[in-house]
Design brief:
Length: 125
């Protein structure tokens, strides 16, 4: 906990997704809401097929599912979502400074609270 599942539209060029995930981990850890950096887990996927609107514009999206344990108040969850969105926006501003401004990027973050039955177990393999 927490888990980040990041999905990008199929044609969105994401330079070095590993670096994006590392920056997200650092930003979330810096909030003080994560006990240990190794508690964070991320996955990054490109959608096999995606469409924004009627397809007439070259608009892209990144959708993040932010899975969290229960117990945080609404303001804290909103702040964590904003940290994720801001970190992604900053990542693109830094790594694609000449990005064509005619191609907007929608950044969406959806918080999902894990149920009380969520189980985590560490084993050595």
């Amino acid at each position: 906990m927490p888990h980040l599942i990041i999905e990008a539209s199929q044609d969105l060029h994401v330079p070095n997704p590993d670096r994006l995930m590392a920056q997200l981990h650092q930003a979330l850890f810096a909030t003080g809401q994560v006990k240990a950096i190794n508690d964070l887990k991320s996955r990054f996927y490109h959608s096999a097929c995606s469409l924004v609107g009627d397809g007439r514009t070259a608009e892209h999206f990144i959708m993040v599912q932010l899975y969290l344990m229960t117990g945080r108040d609404v303001a804290t969850i909103a702040r964590l979502c904003q940290v994720v969105a801001d970190t992604i926006a900053q990542f693109f501003a830094t790594h694609l400074p000449n990005h064509d401004s005619q191609q907007p990027l929608q950044i969406c973050v959806n918080p999902v609270e894990l149920g009380a039955q969520y189980t985590k177990r560490n084993v050595h393999i």
